[in-house]
């Protein structure tokens, strides 16, 4: 710092938990790739393997990137709030784009193979989660990233945004678990109960998804690990309240 003060540090334990979350996230991506590559023939577009893009995209977008987007405010604790907001929105937007590719892949694959759409519990939960996630992203950008919403309206919506953010992350992992189970029952229903390697690997992926979700949720719910507002942010917040509510900062 310019005044000779020591640089700000992260709270004790935060960095370790974030590192564990990233290790788990990368491991679950590698496990997904290993499952699809070793037992399902890999991934290719406009081919019988197009369906396999679906689980890969959903795990990457709706779980790993969504989880990282939620962690942004814990990891980048001392950067400008505007930059942190932008990164938060961009990661969520990237997650949505990748998930959309996964949804297109499964619909095109079903159409090519003559398989019905949207009849399973997995498809209902997954599509509802994606639509609500898209709505959450639009509302978040409208309230927090772009000017227009008043100070009181932002204050009212912020708890809802936080609650639904964590809820949608949980729903995403739940939908993935349902999808893994459905895929195993379709592909190896006769041998699944015999502890075949594919079943064990897919079950391991499910455990990794749960573990990743638990670690991210733990980081998000530790009160002392929340991002503290910077002094200039508090001043800007009061100025914004004055402009949008017509009150003085001390009102």
TrEMBL record:
Location in the cell: Cytoplasmic vesicle, Secretory vesicle, Chromaffin granule membrane
Primary location: membrane
Cofactor(s), by name: heme b
Signal peptide: none
InterPro entries linked to this entry: CYB561/CYBRD1-like, Cyt_b561/ferric_Rdtase_TM
Any Pfam family: Cytochrom_B561
Keywords tagged on the record: Cytoplasmic vesicle, Electron transport, Heme, Iron, Membrane, Metal-binding, Translocase, Transmembrane, Transmembrane helix, Transport
Catalytic activity: monodehydro-L-ascorbate radical(out) + L-ascorbate(in) = monodehydro-L-ascorbate radical(in) + L-ascorbate(out)
The protein, known as: Transmembrane ascorbate-dependent reductase CYB561
Protein function: Transmembrane reductase that uses ascorbate as an electron donor in the cytoplasm and transfers electrons across membranes to reduce monodehydro-L-ascorbate radical in the lumen of secretory vesicles. It is therefore involved the regeneration and homeostasis within secretory vesicles of ascorbate which in turn provides reducing equivalents needed to support the activity of intravesicular enzymes.
Domain spans labelled Cytochrome b561: 20-221
């Amino acid at each position: 710092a310019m005044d000779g003060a020591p640089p700000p540090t992260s709270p004790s334990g935060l960095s370790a938990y974030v590192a564990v979350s990233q290790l788990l996230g990368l491991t679950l991506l590698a496990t997904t790739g290993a499952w699809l590559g070793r037992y399902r023939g890999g991934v290719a577009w406009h081919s019988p393997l197009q369906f396999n893009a679906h689980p890969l995209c959903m795990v990457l977008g709706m779980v790993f990137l969504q989880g990282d987007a939620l962690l942004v405010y814990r990891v980048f604790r001392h950067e400008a709030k505007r930059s942190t907001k932008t990164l938060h929105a961009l990661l969520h937007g990237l997650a949505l784009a990748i998930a959309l590719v996964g949804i297109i892949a499964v619909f095109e694959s079903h159409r090519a193979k003559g398989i019905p759409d949207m009849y399973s519990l997995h498809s209902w939960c997954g599509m509802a989660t994606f639509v609500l996630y898209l709505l959450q992203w639009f509302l978040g950008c409208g309230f927090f990233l772009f000017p227009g919403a008043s100070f009181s309206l932002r204050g009212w919506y912020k708890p809802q945004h936080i609650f639904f953010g964590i809820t949608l992350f949980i729903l995403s992992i739940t939908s993935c678990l349902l999808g893994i189970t459905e895929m195993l029952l379709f592909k190896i229903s006769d041998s699944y109960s015999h502890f075949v390697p594919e079943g064990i690997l897919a079950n391991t992926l499910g455990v990794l998804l749960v573990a990743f979700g638990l670690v991210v949720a733990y980081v998000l719910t530790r009160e002392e690990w929340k991002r503290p507002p910077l002094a200039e942010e508090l001043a800007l917040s009061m100025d914004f309240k004055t402009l949008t509510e017509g009150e003085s900062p001390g009102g």
